[in-house]
Specification:
3 copies of one chain form a homotrimer. Chain A is of the alpha/beta class and 349 residues long. Chain A contains 6 helices and 40 strands. Chain A is flat, with a radius of gyration of 27 Å.
Chain lengths: 349, 349, 349
């Protein structure tokens, strides 16, 4: 019931060293793999581990092939990016095991007459699809999801259980939105009059491109007048907050708990470590990388890695250093006084 | 199909300079507005942009009126707070376009017999309303919401899809709770015995005043014995966490990802930037403003703006400065040694 | 309708000084308690308050008993851990008032034929239970919850309304999962090829032990290949994010908004203050305590309290100190220059 190595190479490319008739039933890490598994070497430091692997075959790079060929007895699939190859093969095996729901609308779902549900889409139990919403071919709207009026869900996009996707928002093809995410809630916009807040209606949309993944319990607010835009290939982890009118550039990735305040414009191919925060109305260039726990309080126009968090220490040490941080201006004054005194002394001599 | 300027001034006040018969169909920013739009000038620096605006009319302040009157050809509505006026007019136009559900209970909702649903309230698909809950006139409980036993939802309050509002909690009139918010989950309270946690039942409520807005996926915990209180006019953005037994003073606003630990008391008219954190049992006075990303670890009894986050830098620079921060006590010692040596030297001379 | 002190001592232990026939109807803090209440003294500093309490009886420690016996007129239950005793008695009284749903499956729930629902379990309105899922005796799955294919919910575990518990994940007995929590969403795992992310299927599970409590809107991701593991007795507050393949040791507690990146291993009996963050692949030993707002960027192998956040200051003071922090290397250079000059001077003399 396995898949022939020959078939994998036909599907995913790469050069096979070994018998194409060997069958594998799945993929496993070097140390855990059995002789029914394919494994992968994506880090040359693990060559010794590869040599001892029980896997039937390994995915590896041309660089590692000569050494591994000499020490490891199994077949090899040689490819320039073994980790990407592993991802694709893992997707292939996962799809074989996945239990897909049959297309159609669960009888317990509430679907407006004017909603346009593709016959090959799936609408799960207790889902609500409002008037004018359009659900594309192969899309999957799981149990308890809400899709608002005139929203568009692209082909093969998957909303996991209990996602809320508000009116008029749009997501392209092959997207994934994880449970509890809320797309298109009102942005946080108010005018102040005599200390009281007056709500500014949020009438823009959230417009999401193709191949975007949005994590569990993340929130992306709709724009105030214009739209909030998430470009193609963006990957957002869990519990991320994107304020109204932001634009997140294509193929940018953010780890869990990141927050981006309203009207920030973020470039392409950026990465944000967990709990990084971006203030509103800032601009971040392409290829900027923000470390975890760092607060971006000014625009960052030059590519590179940026960091800003207080280093962890034993509590007593932190208390001492934090007390000095609070008084750094005093320390600077002391140094200036010393410099002055010494200037006088050196003049004297 | 537009609205006469004369009618807007009747509704919202202000002084009209121009023809009251001019009709506008909506509101737009200075640069985007067409001759069917009203626009607004809330920042005097944009006077030049106002002069060139295609808008049929502008909302502006008495201060800007003379200059703009001389350069801009359209009508003007003169008012002391143009941004607040804009907000009200925008609400008016948004309400004209809003598709409101008809009052009544969706047949797929689960409503306990003893729940008291006002005939002008709306209960959406798959909503659950438990026994004894009371839903006020004009209130709107959207799809998938849960309203627990004996909870009270005030008149004209709107729970967006998939809100959870637990037993005995209360919200006043004209409130908005966005999708995924959880009101009245248990506070985090335990006794410790031999390293094991014993749960302390959380039997208080969450009591929310009038005109409060709570963002998507925010959480407000019920009190342990007494109540958690959110006063009138408070505005909370998305993904905010309010611990048990907190009190948030009237007209305080918090941006996304703020966290407030249990039993903190926060004054009126405060603001909190995104991801600011407040430790438990602290007191924060009225009119305190906490910057984004700042940790409040002591009570703040004096009004003003407070900040505390590590400044962002290129990663290599941060590594150098963080290494010094870790060793600030050593630096202080060096300065003391220098001061001592110099004292000796100056005595010598 | 109260409970006799004698019965409480029979149930929960402790030594009674006073009349076992006295009845109490509930528990209240020292200052609020009436003569129908039991109260507790868990902090010796409050002895004076205890003396004046109107409570019918007090729970207190042997240490406080002599003083309190002399000043307070009521009965006493003497026990080594009054706070833990209070927690148990409070649970007892809360259970008396709790309105439990009758076991059974709400007619509006969607339950797969092959799901195994214990006859003493409760499945609420609009819940979805997929094929092969198993719900234990006395478990309670409230309105709007989703329990995926082949998931296991242990005996007496309670999922509050709108929890999402994904396929094949497991939770033990007596657990509590609060509303909006998402257990078993995909971990954040991608290979990169030419700047584009390729999803790595997340095929592990989340495996949760007994007596675990998980807060509202918290998220725990399923493992990539192996499982994410939450051991017995762990207590997680609201809005916590646990990445894929983490292990959280038994009886560790985390306050709200904590984030733990993937593959971190955290020991037993640790505590994390609100909004603390842990980077991926780190190891944290048993009995480590991380303060609120602190970023753990290296493994912590020694027990103790650790802290790292920038101290709050008035904004103008923070601006001055932050500017110096940005230039600490310059300050260090100045000190080195001073040291050098002084060395020359002292040699001269």
């Amino acid at each position: 019931m396995g898949t022939r190595l020959g078939e994998l190479v036909e599907r995913f490319g790469g050069q096979l060293a070994g018998d194409p008739e060997i069958e594998v039933v799945g993929i496993a890490p070097l140390a855990d793999a059995q002789d029914c598994h394919l494994s992968f070497l994506s880090n040359s430091k693990l060559r010794a581990l590869a040599a001892q692997s029980q896997a039937a075959a390994l995915i590896l790079s041309p660089l590692d092939e000569p050494t591994v060929a000499a020490t490891y007895g199994g077949a090899r699939i040689i490819t320039t990016n073994p980790y990407a190859y592993f991802a694709r093969v893992a997707q292939y095996f996962a799809a074989l095991e996945e239990v897909l729901p049959s297309p159609g609308i669960d009888p317990s779902a509430s679907v407006a007459n004017s909603a346009d549900i593709h016959p090959r889409a799936f609408i799960g139990p207790h889902a609500t699809i409002e008037a004018g919403a359009k659900i594309g071919a192969g899309a999957r709207i799981d149990a308890g999801c809400f899709v608002g009026r005139d929203a568009l869900i692209g082909a093969s996009t998957h909303l996991f259980a209990n996602v809320t996707f508000h009116a008029r928002c749009v997501i392209g093809a092959r997207g994934i939105i994880h449970s509890g995410a809320v797309i298109g809630a009102d942005g946080f916009g108010f005018a102040v009059e005599s200390g009281v807040y007056i709500k500014i209606p949020q009438t823009g949309r959230v417009v999401i491109g193709d191949d975007v993944e949005i994590g569990a319990n993340s929130t992306i607010d709709r724009g105030a007048l214009a739209d909030t835009v998430i470009e193609d290939g963006v990957k957002l982890d869990n519990q991320i907050q994107i304020g109204h009118n932001c634009r997140i550039g294509a193929h940018t990735a953010m780890a869990g708990c990141v927050g981006v305040a309203g009207s920030a414009t973020i470039g392409k191919h950026c990465t944000f470590g967990g709990a990084a925060m971006v203030l509103g109305h800032l601009e971040i260039a392409d290829n900027v990388h923000i470390s975890s726990g760092s607060m971006v309080s000014r625009s960052v126009l030059e590519p590179g890695q940026y960091t800003g968090f207080y280093p962890l220490a034993k509590n007593a040490e932190w208390e001492r250093s934090a007390a000095i941080v609070r008084n750094l201006t005093a320390m600077r004054e002391k140094i200036r006084a010393l410099e002055k005194t010494i200037k006088t002394l050196t003049k004297d001599t």
